[in-house]
Structures are given as structure tokens and as C-alpha cells.
Amino acid sequence: MDTNKKAAAAPVAAIVLAAGSSRRMGQPKQLLMLNGKTLLEHTLGNVREAGIGEIVLVLGANAEEIGSRILTDGLKVVVNAGHEAGMGTSLRTGLAAVSPEMEAALIVLADQPFVRPRTLRAIVESRRSTGAQITIPLYNGFRGNPVLLDRSVFPEVMSLSGDVGCRAIFGTHVEGIHKLPVNDIGVLIDIDAPDDVRHLRLLAPEDDADAAAVQLPELEIEPREPGENAESHRELVIIGNDEVAVALAELARVLGMQVTVVDPLLGLEDFYYADAVLHKLNFSLLGSKEKCVLVASRGRCDEEALAEALRTDARYIGLLANKKRSAEVLTALKYQGFSEGQLKQIHAPAGIEIGAKSPEEIALSIAAEMVKVTSSRTDG
Predict the structure, then answer these.
(1) Residue 102 predicted with pLDDT over 50
(2) Which end of the chain has a smaller Cβ tally under 10 Å, C or N?
């Protein structure tokens, strides 16, 4: 047997979460076909090949149909009758089924068919060497899945309710988190909507489902005619691609700023208002323009992106988050060694108070704060 597989045969369980109703997809995404197999079969195959000691499969919506379509030999199958209440109930169901002798659990999402077995083994081995309570894989600086939980945090995770995942406990375990860099883009790729499937079929090689074969350039730049926004001496760097990010990018273009979006999977064709797309959290790859930074990753890489921004001479740094999340992120950064003076540079939550509700209004509040801060620094 491969020595890596022997190492991974430690008392660690894998909980494969496959209980969702796939509302955005319109059909059970667990059974979508990719390269001749269902998504769930790809995911389970990777976990089996990794040599994980115990595999718990959590079903819920469409449990009977899914169970009849896949090979369940060697699996501990449990059904979450309360799956409609959200992921928290599936985590609780899965953790309750883990055998007492298991020291930790790898929380695997059924809709992530591209995570390589050797990546799963590396996550397990990392916990053994670090003793971390929580191990999170990083690809190019971006947090991915699966996450490995030590048994010591099981009770806290099992107390979660509603549509929340493991991330809900990260803020109370800052010192117990280990972030493991991996060379596997599969830890970032999941499938929620039909557009994701079309995109993944382009990414996946024909002979297997190894998305690690995907090679993206570090930086994509859109050539523009002289005098357009690319010639501006100011640059807005946005980490994230939600509706607020899009609205802010449009405003920034109106203000004459160059817009760079930081995302490991997007291309220029995916973000209309971007002048450049950076695929890795490394701002040294950008030019020397005066920078404003908005972190709108919604938890995917908040701390990592803010840390990168603090290492640059950014004129404005904002975090799109609520007050509770903002406090958690600042605490994590303080633990990493950033000073109070450095943390005061971060506007968290980002935006001035104007009673903003819609994405466009929130973007306007952030743009106004950005103008106010950069103008005061210039005047000073």
C-alpha cells in the first residue's frame, strides 16, 4: 500500500454531506453526470481512495433515489430528516454517527468532485503533525473545503442550527486553526447552479475529473485604449464577486479608477467591469498604482486578503461584513501579529451610514467612505 495511504488510515472519519435539496440546480445535483459518473460517485471515490478510516454519508432530500443510484458498500449511511432546516442539521447528524474511536472528522461536500485523494491525505496528515483543532486547505491564498475537525470541537459544531456550516465556530478557535497550502484548485470548486456545471465541463479533462490540471495565469489584464480607465493612477482591488462587488466596480469605473478583481476561478469575461483579474492573493503581482482595497469574500478569505492588503501601502482598506463577523476577523488578525495601529486602517464594516439596503446602496456607501478617506489623506 502507498505510504501516504497508510498515514491517512489514522482514526479519522469523513462525513460526506449530500442532504441538500438542490433548489438552485432544479434537480438532485448529487446525481448529475460528469465523465460517466455522478458527482457524488466522484466525491465518494476520492474519499475511498484517500484511505479514510470511516465514511459517513448524510442523505436527506431525494435520499431514496440517491441511495438506489450509488454504491453504498462500506459506507455508514444516515438520513437527516430535518435537512430543510439547513447544513447545521446535517453536520449534527453526521457527527452523531461517527464512531467513538475516531479522533477527527473530515467534512466533505458532495458537490466537490475534484478534490484529489492526495489532498485529502495531506489534510489528515497535517492534523497529525500540527495537532490543530481545525485544518483548512488554502489554494493560492483562498480558503477551500474539506475542513478537518478535531473531536474536541464536535460538541460546538453539533450545537449549530440553521443553514450554517463549520465556519460559524472559526471565530472562537483562532489559535486552533491551521491553514494548509495545497496545489489543488478542486478545494475551491463546487456546483450549485446549472452554470457551474457548464463551467466545470470545460475545466474537467476528458479522461478523469482531476481539476488540478487546470492552469490559470496569475494575472489577466484587459488592454484598453489610451485615456481609458486603465490609465488611471488609482486602482480599486476587490476580493469577491457578489452583487455589491459588481455595483462597486461600476461606480469605481465612473470615478476613473482601474478595477482589479481578485478571484481564483473568474476570468475577465466573467466580470464586465474588471480591467484585470488576479487569480492569487499576492498583491505584489499588481502595479504601483495607488490602491484602495475592498474585501468582499464573504468569509472565503477575509483574514488572508486583509493581511495582504495591510502589507501594501493601500490608501483605503474595507471589509464587507456585519459587526460580529468584523470583530472576529480583527481578532484573528491581531492573533497573527498585526498591531492595533495597523488594524485601525481597516474599515470594518465598510461604508458610511446612509441606511443602505440594496447592493447598489451598499456599494455607494463604500464608495463614499473610500472617497472621504483618500481625500482626507491627500489633504493631510
Answers:
(1) yes
(2) C
Same domain? 93 vs 226: no
- Of 342, 339, 336, which is closest to residue 175 (Cα–Cα)? 336
Q: 337 is written with which cell numbers?
A: 501579529
d(CA 125, CA 340): 35
Indicate whether 351 pLDDT > 70: yes
Q: Quick one: pLDDT at residue 159? A: 86
DSSP, collapsed to helix, strand or coil, labels residue 239 as strand
CATH number at residue 15: 3.90.550.10
Q: Containing domain of residue 180, as a range?
A: 3-203
Q: Angle, nearest 10°, between helix axes 323-335 and 302-310?
A: 60
Q: What number of CA atoms fall less than 13 Å from residue 228's CA on the CB side? A: 10
Its pTM surpasses 0.85? no
Contact in structure between 318 and 295 (CB atoms under 8 Å): yes
Based on the domain organization, do 134 and 179 belong to the same domain? yes
Strand 316-319 and strand 234-239: pairing? unpaired
Average pLDDT of the residues of the chain: 84
Give Cα separations from 69 to 5, 38, 373 (angstroms). 28, 9, 57
